[in-house]
Amino acid sequence: MVTAATTSAPLIEKHTIGYVPPEDRHGKTRDLFTLWFGGNIAPLPIVTGALGVQMFHLNLVWGIVAILVGHLVGGVLMALHSAQGPQMGIPQMIQSRAQFGSLGALLVVLIAGIMYIGFFASNIVLAGKSLHGVVDSVPVPVGIVIGALGSGIIGIIGYRFIHVLNRIGTWVLGAGIVLGFGYIFTHVQTADFLTRGSFNISGWLATVSLAALWQIAFAPYVSDYSRYLPANVPVAATFWTTYLGTVLGSSLSFIFGAVAVLATPVGMDTMDAVKLATGSIGPLMLVLFLLSVISHNALNLYGAVLSLITLIQTFAYRWIPTAKSRAILSLIILAACCFAAVGASANFIGHFVDMVLVLLVVLVPWTAINLIDFYAIHKGKYDINSIFKVDGGIYGRYNPQALLAYAIGIVVQIPFMNTPLYVGPISEHINGADLSWLVGLLITSPLYYWLANRDTAYKRRLATGKLANSI
């Protein structure tokens, strides 16, 4: 669908967390495919995908099956969040006020912000290593700063530029990873490429969980990149273009990491294995991955900034954040992450993965509540004005039903957890497989639906017709 805004939309984004009015809507649903496909052809998913054979000791076939199952399942939740964007026209985190209340949503917003700052810091470390791999004379710390500045420029320019870069990246990175697969399969350097590792239920479940959680980790900001689409785009179109893009892109990257590790001697660092396994085209692959991580990391910076603005605006409700505010906060986060990443330990990426697994324990119940509220309770109809009021308007400062379901959703996951901080008894009994995310979803979803339907105040609001997308 082409609108007047499609061709006149400014390159530098002027909105932050505010509602995007119809006259500023632009783009097409196919842009979501290129965004999430191109954005997932990157070093971090490659490193994460390799864990299935490195850490969990699966062979190639069972590793691929686990990766596909995890992404196919987790991608459903991620794409359902994406489909909220055009209907709401606001970022995902501030929309959470409609479920949790203006103050009740703060914990989830804070956790999401921390997680995406962690993603940003991890990716600039990978950017620094990739740049050093391409040009030996560039030290890793210098590469980290260069990678952070590149992502910062893209994030500050904002929404439209991010989409443009990923449209280009889809073709370039898609061709690059296919070329990489072709080279590796024709130049395997190990005799045990197909036989290294074996099926084990705990490793298989852990790899499924890792892939599913990769998708769920996008949930707090995925609709930020669909909120500028015209409000009348079909929900199904938004869902499927997002789903196909994210599942295909991330699955290819995860599998590429597993293949590269199996094609090289045991014990190599994943990105070193990629460089060795791709031989003569290795430098080209590293250049492509460097450009990818810089481009994709802009999403993490952008999401972290929107989360921070949401936190500040909750208390400084008269503040109207502008593009300048977004730029200043971007630079502050960028500088802090560079400082942390340059002084980080050699196992920074491993520590980051551990952190994400811990944080997702508290994000999974939020995902369940948000989706049930949007699709089953409110059916996409919200009072946008109330979301931006300091007292939460008709949603209040706290929603007891959501907070109770959220707390229970966290507690029921504890026996099934396997994190660096705690290993639950059930997880320990099944050789360390972490099924907490699945239990959290299965318990929280019906519980919140039942609690919300017992909320007489909500029923009165619905009966009087106050629930409608309005601004």
Automatic annotation (TrEMBL):
Membrane topology: Multi-pass membrane protein
Cross-referenced Gene3D superfamilies: Hydantoin permease
A cellular component annotation (GO) from this entry: plasma membrane
Keyword tags: Membrane, Transmembrane, Transmembrane helix, Transport
Xref: CDD domains: SLC-NCS1sbd_CobB-like (cd11484)
A GO molecular-function descriptor: transmembrane transporter activity
InterPro entries xref list: Pur-cyt_permease (IPR001248), Pur-cyt_permease_Fcy2/21/22 (IPR026030)
Compartment list: Membrane
PANTHER family: PURINE-CYTOSINE PERMEASE FCY2-RELATED (PTHR31806:SF1)
Family classification: Belongs to the purine-cytosine permease (2.A.39) family.
Protein name: Cytosine permease
